[in-house]
Amino acid sequence: MNKDLKCYIAFIVLPAIALAVGGVLFLHGEFARQQEGIQNWRKIRGEFMGELAQNVQGALKDSADGPARIKALLDLRAEKEERVKGVFLWKKGEGVIWQEGVSEAVRAAFPTNAKWHAVGSKSMSMKRGWTAPVTNNANLAVAWARPASGEVAGLEVDLRDNLTGSDPRDLFAAGTCIVALLFVILLVGGLLLVRAARRARTESARKTTFIDNLSHELKIPLAVVRMKVERLLAGKIAEPEKLQAAYRTIAEENGEVIRQVDDLLELVRTGKGTRRYVRAIFDLNLAVDEAAAALRDRFSPDGLEVKLAGGTVRVDADPDAVRQIIRNLLDNAAKYAAAKGPVEVAVAHAGGWARVTVADRGDGIPPNERERIFERFYRIDNDLTRTTGGTGIGLCLARCFARDMGGEVTADARPGGGSVFTLELPEVRHD
């Protein structure tokens, strides 16, 4: 199991699951506690209202006038402020003497007219009492008393089971949803981590393959150089022509080693974003012609056809980087397609873009591989690539260079068989 995956499970998944389970148990306990409180309240609220009506009567007993009664009612509301929402003092024939916080439902239930009575069976001829529900509101009640003939004073009371206004079941459901969301997040995170681990393993395998390929690519020219140098030191090559050929071989193989090392260094620079480009305006025809001339000996005599555009095709780019892009594309064609037919290199104007195409008649590239071949260290796994040298960084460098200069490198199928690699760079128009 991947080390990162183990850490994720040990330090994130398991604690999160424990927290989620603990949260569910806590919410369940809280729900049970609130439900018990609600049941207890439903059992005692009748007693509470009766006691409150008695308190109203007691508070008004020694109140001689309206101001004293109002003060007594306000004091009583302050004691029971959790549930008491409004207070009132009404008088027969005069209507409202004073009220505060009284809802429209209570005012409608206790009309201030000649027929003093409460809703329900409680007659206003009684000294005190309570009424619930008020109209259609099952959670609204009134505790009242008659401090004097023709007067009624009382408190508007909220009888809801849960004064916060939230149903415990809603709280529990919301908590459960949060926990479920936590599980989903953990699951998605785990899947992403597994996917990242797989990518890391793939990348590691590619790097291992790259190191093997690079070792092979360097070993061959170094072995050739060593062999030639040993023969020279042993004096086994004396004729001037053979000496020149040996020196030429050493130079060529040494150049191949340097090119491989340079490609590796360029890959590191592009990966870090430290690659510097020295831009200049130049003719793309010349860059293509020079790159083709340098690699012509990799092809058969009639195996490389170069078609330059009429007139100049000017681009503002790094000439060395552009030549390396073209060399990499030609090198790719030389390795995998030179034996299957001629390779055509063409330069053209393309509506504001300067375009270079390298078309071959090789085996072609499967559609699902046409983007992956530009990834670092990636090589198509088939018989041809297994028997042909390469490190899997040439096309990656080509695309990186092109994009850094505002262009692009793509791969497509060639009509009739084969592949077409296309380099596009912004063209500089003539003044």
* Category by helix and strand content: alpha+beta
Provide the gyration radius in Å.
46 Å
Helix tally equals 9
The ordered H/E elements are HHEEHEEEHHEHEEHEEHHEE
Shape: rod-shaped
Describe the largest sheet: 5 strands, antiparallel
Poorly predicted sequence stretches spanning 5 or more consecutive residues: 112-123, 382-387
**What is the helical fraction, as a range of percent?**
40-55%
**N-to-C CA distance:** 63 Å
Indicate the mean pLDDT.
78
Question: What spatial order of strands do you see in the largest sheet?
Answer: 2-1-5-4-3
Oligomer: single chain
Strand proportion, as a percent range, falls in: 15-25%
Structural domain count:
3
The strand count comes to 12
Summarize the helices and strands and which ones pair or pack.
Layout: H1 3-61, H2 66-79, E1 84-91, E2 95-100, H3 104-109, E3 128-131, E4 140-145, E5 151-158, H4 168-233, H5 240-272, E6 280-283, H6 284-295, E7 304-307, E8 314-317, H7 319-336, E9 343-349, E10 353-359, H8 383-387, H9 394-404, E11 408-413, E12 419-426
